[in-house]
Amino acid sequence: MPFYGPLNAAHSPDEIMLPLNFNDPLEDNEPLRYRFLRERYRREGVEGHDLKTENGWRRLIANYWGLVTQVDLSVGAILKALEDLGLSENTIVVYTSDHGAMMGAHHLLAKTVMYEESAKVPWLIRVPGMHSKQNIIENPVSHIDLLPTLLDLMSCREMRSLPGVSLMPFIRGETIKSDPVFIEWNPAVKYARGTYSMRFDDSELMKRAFSSSIRTIVSPDGWKLCLSDLDKNQLFNLEKDPGETINLFDSGHYQDIISKLSGEIHQWQEKVGDQVKV
Question: Which residue(s) pair with 228 in the sheet?
């Protein structure tokens, strides 16, 4: 945001590929805050974009693609400058982001939710002389591993005070044990504004939903558990359901997995001094 830029016309709305989970209805077992947000975008739109229709979403996403293209061109300019200055062979280049963007997935926008489109971010790293071709790391890793990895690449070994770990073994293609990734969301001071239809007219219910905190674990074998203190919990099998359209938490079939992953979340909370009760 804002979803306007100099390359608004670079991509036609007709060429937009809507997310495969665009029409996911967000059933009653999904977090209430997410359903509030979905309804707000439908009713109010954003920045003049009418999000009641598929065409409205296509126009907004086309503008977003234009912004991404603008960033791509700028990254290209930076890489070319490194080449022109003779610095490309001794410069580590990292491209990443602090969050993703839903961009129509589950009919949602922006961030603040635990779905993959929001929580999973790009992380590209170019290391001179390390590989002649790209190496894709499939294991889930955390942003807190970025600094230890860069220090390791620069042969700075003193990293005992940092919470993350170096990912150099993965970069070198070694087979090592992968750890789970933990993600947290804490509520903003203010909760949602505006009026809502559907069954969401209870302002106290809405305030409770927007006051909730979330603690999430993504396991190396593809399970994702999201525990909330005041809202619905979620469990997804990312291998079988990458679009996160089926919340398995209340299905009654995965209590062992829920118990195991909940225990790991609580152990992590104790380790980092997190006092939120989920």
Answer: 214
